[in-house]
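Sample pair:
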Amino acid sequence: MEEAKEKILLEFGALDIVPAHRKEDAAFEYSPMAKMRAGLRRVRSLKGHAGERIRVEGLPYESFGEDLTGGRIPEVGSVDELLRCISLCNGLGVSFNLALNGGKFLSEAGIENMCRDPETGVGRVLKELDVSASSHFVKNHVTIYRDELLDVVEGLYPELGTVASCVKFTTNGVDRVLRLYERAFERYDHVVALPQHSNIELLGNFPDNAGQMMLFPNLGCSEKDTRICKGHYAGLDVPGKYVSPRCSRGCSNRMDYLIDRKEKDLIPLIQMGVRAFKFPRYVAEMGFSMAAELVDLVAEEVGGA
């Protein structure tokens, strides 16, 4: 049987999917491993939907959190628990993406030195990502905001894939935004576009880089000046500089989702060659509900439907 020539990559929060058979049990404390397995089952179900038309690949991601030295990590519980999640994914032939683009990874001085040290929590995880990928013949990734950290990852773990965080592009002015994307495409394997930038008008300037793009189908703020998007990117004034958030509440701007702009933007971007999509944290269930639609759109474009 000939393998599908086209693939679609779906990145999702590794611990965001609640095991379906336990949803009614509100008192049950879902373990990270149970959530991880639930997410991987959702990916397998999409593979069944795609059949021979499209190869569906899942990319679970998890953020490291605030405790860089090795203690508790808010989403997972501990470094050891995160390492077990990575091992589970890689052992099943699934890549893993470690997000180092929030909290102290935005602004903390000397953070790169902690990432170099294999004895710190973040250093242990980076090393395991590299070792486990080699052992299981997968490609693990790291999502990065600061280029200084990219230098560390490229220097110590050149086999790890790199993903440019969408937060890198929180600025205003079309020319400046285009220069930031151009630079990111040159240095990173994948580039996550800001929802405000996920349109054919802007990303159409980079047709040769469509295969590197990763887009949010169900996250979007209509505020085009990302410096004043109060909920999603509060505090990021210019790339490389973190300031105090202007608003601690949720974003009150009108939402504008890519999945709702099929004819205007989504289909033209797929036709350009975009094949990677990211489901934002805490709404991954909603994302998976529309993933079959994304698979169908890609299949129609490549003539597999």
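The domain at 13-35+59-282 is CATH 3.20.20 (TIM Barrel).
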